[in-house]
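Could you show me just one protein sequence together with its fold in token form as a worked example?
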Amino acid sequence: MPGGRERAERKKMESSGSGAFFLATLILWAVSVLFEIVFNGRRELLVVLWGCLFFQGANWILRLTVSKDPLFVNTCVSLLHSSFSSLFVVLILANEWMKKGIKEMFEHKQLVDGLWSGAYSALCFSCGYFAYDQWDMLHYRLYSGWIPSILLHHLVLLICFTLALYRNITINYLIMSLVCELHSIFLHLRKIRRMSGVRDGKMRVVQLEWVFNWLAFFTARLGCHVLITYKLIRDAHKFERGVALPLALTGMAGMNLLNFFLGRDLLKAYRREQAQVHGD
């Protein structure tokens, strides 16, 4: 049908246009990181490159041994990152809690100028993942529209993470923001389950998955990001002049907005699966 072909062509053009923009920003980001490593001697940033290579390597192994479906492989690698990232963040927070206690570890100076043990490397590793994932989605066109939310999300994170790594500020704040990866584990598990053909909402494992999905959404994602935003606003007067506070508030505003849309989509998916259960 002509109308269907026209819509398909229009979507392809939209995808190509946005893809070119996000590819250009990714290349600029890569040049920036390489410049810091080579010309400014920032060897600690090599972990960003190791992160990229690690997840790209995992992608190749999955493609050779499990499936050649780009979306399935991409989701499996995302699950791998969420699992590693969650483990790193939990270990970092637990270690600081035992060493300093809750009150001291969440003091403004600690969160802005301090550096928890392992925090810098963990942030570099996640930064490498988001760069890999941006490339993988661009390469296989795992997005749609003029402004794909997932590509925009990754671009914002790459900017915020990289600027923080360059200037050695707000590293601990960003580590706290990664607590949301605990919820991402259940998002990726659900996606893999459905792509594997397991869609029966009556199954106990599916019902249990939804329980953990909602619990993690309201605590690890929504609750954590709201608390970080509250802390930033409450301590706004303690920030020195510069880009740190505006960048942090802008980043968290974007994250909270994305969380709202994610929660809306999750609710729709949950209602849809529940309707199928009652319909059967």
In short: The chain is about 80% helix and 0% strand. Residues 201 and 275 are 9 Å apart (CA to CA). The chain has a mean pLDDT of 91. The first helix runs from residue 2 to 39.
